[in-house]
Structures are given as C-alpha cells and as structure tokens.
Design brief:
- The protein has two domains: 4-125, Response regulator (Rossmann fold); 141-234, Winged helix-like DNA-binding domain superfamily/Winged helix DNA-binding domain (Arc Repressor Mutant, subunit A).
- By secondary structure, the protein is of the alpha/beta class.
- The protein starts with a strand and ends in a 6-residue tail after the last strand.
- The strands form three sheets. The chain has a five-stranded parallel β-sheet, with helices on both faces. It has a four-stranded antiparallel β-sheet with strand order 6-7-8-9, with helices on one face.
- The protein has helices spanning 12-24, 35-44, 63-73, 88-96, 109-131, 167-177, 186-194, 203-217; strands at residues 4-8, 28-32, 51-55, 79-83, 101-104, 141-142, 146-149, 154-157, 160-161, 184-185, 224-227, 231-234.
- It has eight helices and twelve strands.
- The radius of gyration is 18 Å and the shape is elongated.
- The modification 4-aspartylphosphate is found at residue 55.
Length: 240
Amino acid sequence: MSLRILMVEDDNSVAEMMGMFFKKEGWQQDIAVNGVEAVDMFKENADKYDLITLDLNLPKKDGIQVAKEVRAISPTVPIIMLTARGSESDQVLGLGIGADEYVTKPFSPIALIARIKALHRRVMMEEDVQTQENNNQEYEIQTAHLKISKDRREVLFDDQPVVDLTPKEFDLLYTMAQKPKQVFSRDQLLELVWGYEYYGEERTVDAHIKKLRQKLEKVGAKVIQTVWGVGYKFDDSQVK
C-alpha cells in the first residue's frame, strides 16, 4: 500500500518520529509546519494526497481552521487530527468539522499506523463500491421513515435529505439502521464501524453519535436512542 501523506506538524521531534515510521511503510510525506502553509500546499494539489495528519495546535492558523478549509476543498480526503488536548469538547469540535480520527498525544506510532491503514482501506472500499455502482435507485435500508442507499451514501428521512454526514457518521447510522431496536454497545460500534482494534477511548463513539443526532434532528429525525449503561439503538417506530 503506497500512500502520499500531508503531515501538518510544527514539532520537529514528532515530525521526525512519524516520518521514520512512514518511511518504514514505504509511504511518502510532505510536511507543513504551520496552518497557512498546510492549506496552501493542499490547495495547490489536493488530488496528490491520500491522507492528512493534522496537529491541532499550529502557528498562524490552528488545526480547526485548517480542517475547515481543507473540507471546503475536499469533503472526502481522510483527516487524522493529532493534539495534546484531551478534553471531550476538543474532540467533539475536531470531529464536528470533519476529522475522521482523533489521536491524543503522546501516542503510539504503531497505533497511528494501524489507524492510517484501516482508514485508507475503508476509503478504498468505498471508492470501489462507487465505481461499481450501476445507478440503481433502490435503497438498501427502508424503515418506517428512513431510506438509506449505501452506494450513493444517501439518507432520506420522510423524503428529506440528511446532509453533510461524515463517513463515520453515515457508517454508524447504516450499521444501527440495519438492525432497528437492537442495542449496540460502544465496543460493538467501534468494531463494526472502525473495523479494527481501536486504541482510543469509547467517548469517540459518543462524540460521533452527538454530531449524527444533530444532523438527523435538523430534519426531525429523533431516531438514535441512548440505552443508559449499555449503548445506542436506532428506532423510528415511534416517530410521528
């Protein structure tokens, strides 16, 4: 697996360490040391990069603003946000502006490599599905109020589109909607949606669920329920 990574990192020691592990994998990287440089490099040739590792605390322009500007250019390029901050609010903020992963420093380089590989595999699988798409307008999932097309990454609630879902948010909804009323634990969702042994914390699921709910509720879809002490379930049978 050959990757071209845009590494946005102002800490030389961290950049050197990451670069060493990337080199062992046979990956190439370009390094931006501040937010302005990162946006300029990505804007110049967005198709060049398979993935971005993005530090949150950057000079000139912070990681949140960089992620927003990158997402305006490309809604799909995978972003792994790296930060020394560990609060839930920071994590929710990072995920909310489109980051696919959130890694708190200090982190294990091996764990980071595992996340990059899994994230890239998922992106490749999604692209393969879209390549094979035959424009069939059927929906794989149809419940009382919801229709979901996995091929088109399309979600309708009472025929209203649910927009701006990130890949992880869509996958969470699709996973739960396949089995309405089944309660999924956070560990189950990490395994089913992330697809590998996750080295982060379970609150990553909570952060994604929070943003997913907000986007669903914009069209009146209060369909993700919390089962206290257990996890989450999808149920639209009581929606009016």
